[in-house]
Specification:
The chain is mainly beta. The chain has 2 helices and 20 strands. The longest helix has 16 residues. The two termini are 20 Å apart. The N terminus is likely disordered.
Length: 417
């Protein structure tokens, strides 16, 4: 029965999520869009830390954790996000509901575990306008949608009871579509430019885990992950046309599209190095990560903007969980996993000489499904990105996530026919 529920939910989430724009962030205008995947929601609700691992969850942020798999684990998740976008003089609201991930992990032997799945890498989804008619007679409107996804397969190997290593192989793919409309008060018609990029490429992610007893009641966890910079092939097309503005403010085509030759390019997925450490046991855990990103090498899709640059990014995350009594038989809420976390990130994007920062707090609950090792995971994240200073946009966001985690011995041998 659980397998049928997993299949149904997976089909519904995949069909629903990939049909949507996956973000409403104006900062997805740059590079290959805003980074989307922060981990499965049980780890997101701990601030997005990557140091923790056990035998019943899949930590896809660190492939070394796959070696812990004792039974088959299957996870799917989705998020509803609500945005409040503010400038110094105006504000707008937006919301998005998206599919987040579909991953599976299973043991191959006592020392080897494997994981595979489908994850989002980045997302583009914005609607922006620039009205400078009082200065130079121009009005500009920008729209963007699409994103980059990845399928991966990886394995973790337990070298000793304390050390594990792992490696992911990833194939990245997606379509990025952007549109810009420009009107000049001195000209009857405006111009429209539509750019579409079909991107693809390969990437890897390596990890190392170390776990030992700190004392009789505590375990010490540490981790190291590294993903080298990856380059994506971007096959580009461009179409231009004339447009006109109606009295109600809508913009309609005034001529047929004309294709313009444009060169194919290379886009960059930045390198990433993360170091983590923590203390805990089966009842509780507290840990933190520091991640360094090579975003200083980032490039825009078609053109460079004089007010935009990139620097290397850094993210600090702290989080953990608490289970009052994981083996309680008569009190359900004592078996609930309570999670929380905090993150602070310098994204590496610099606009108008202002570094774009992102900070948030998270809270979550792992609700066990009676009679199984499976659970329903619920969580919320509240945060902000950017600032209203220097002509920029401050993005306040509130996200609600839901994830389903199923554990079962799918590949066990049958003793009797």
């Amino acid at each position: 029965m659980i397998k049928k529920i997993v299949l149904l939910i997976t089909i519904l989430l995949a069909n629903f999520g990939f049909a949507q724009e996956n973000t409403a962030s104006p900062y997805s205008f740059y590079g290959i869009g805003s980074a989307r995947f922060k981990g499965t929601n049980d780890f997101v609700n701990m601030g997005g830390i990557s140091v923790y691992s056990d035998s019943t969850h899949i930590n896809v942020l660190n492939p070394a954790s796959y070696s812990n798999q004792l039974i088959t684990t299957f996870q799917v998740g989705m998020t509803s996000s609500f945005y409040n976008l503010n400038t110094a003089s105006a504000s707008e609201k937006a919301k998005k509901t998206t599919f987040d991930y579909m991953v599976m992990g299973f043991p191959v032997s006592k020392k080897v575990g494997v994981s595979l799945g489908l994850l989002p890498q980045s997302a583009v989804g914005y609607r922006l306008s620039s009205d400078t008619r009082s200065v130079n007679g121009l009005f500009k409107q920008y729209k963007g949608k699409g994103g980059v996804n990845k399928v991966f397969v990886g394995a973790g190997y337990q070298i000793t009871p304390k050390f594990s290593v792992g490696l992911d192989f990833q194939y990245l793919f997606g379509i990025l579509n952007t549109q810009s409309d420009v009107f000049d008060q001195t000209i009857i018609y405006g111009s429209r430019e539509i750019n579409e990029s079909t991107v693809s490429g390969l990437a890897v992610n390596a990890g190392l885990n170390f776990k030992t007893k700190f004392n009789n009641k505590l375990n010490f966890f540490s981790s190291l992950t590294y993903a080298p910079e990856a380059k994506l092939n971007s096959i580009n097309t461009r179409n231009v046309s004339l447009v006109s503005a109606l009295a109600n403010g809508s913009i309609v085509a005034a001529s047929a599209d004309t294709e313009v030759n444009v060169a194919d390019t290379k886009l960059i997925v930045p390198s990433k190095l993360a170091i983590g450490a923590g203390l805990g046991n089966r009842k509780w855990f507290l840990g933190g990560d520091v991640a360094f990103s090579g975003t200083g090498n980032q490039v825009n899709r078609f053109e460079n903007y004089s007010n935009v640059s990139y620097e290397n990014g850094v993210k600090v995350a702290i989080g953990g969980f608490f289970i009052p009594k994981f083996d309680s038989y008569n009190n359900y809420f004592q078996r609930v996993t309570y999670r929380g976390g905090f993150k602070y990130e310098n994204t590496g994007l610099v606009i108008n000489n202002t570094a774009i920062k992102d900070k948030s707090v998270t809270l979550g609950f792992g609700l066990p499904i009676s009679g199984t090792f499976s659970s329903l995971n619920l969580g919320a994240e509240y945060g902000s990105r950017g600032t209203t200073g220097n002509g920029l946009i401050k993005e306040n966001y509130f996200s609600i996530n839901i994830g389903l985690l199923f554990n079962d011995k799918w590949f066990r041998k049958t003793l009797y026919n």
